[in-house]
Amino acid sequence: MADSSQITQLLNDIEEGSEETYNELFPLVYQKLKQLAYSNLQDERDDITYTKTALVHEMKYI
Fold this sequence. Notes:
By secondary structure, the chain is mainly α. It has helices at 4-15, 21-41, 52-58.
């Protein structure tokens, strides 16, 4: 699992023009978002039908 400093470094690399870094960054951020979604779903009611993946995909509508 990537930590915040690794993600920050990859973002800095992209800002400096490293296009191939995006391919390394995206899976790390996606996994982190799924981890956060899972954590948030644990606090919800039992009848919530979202999966962590579905919740992450819904973020694009926010």
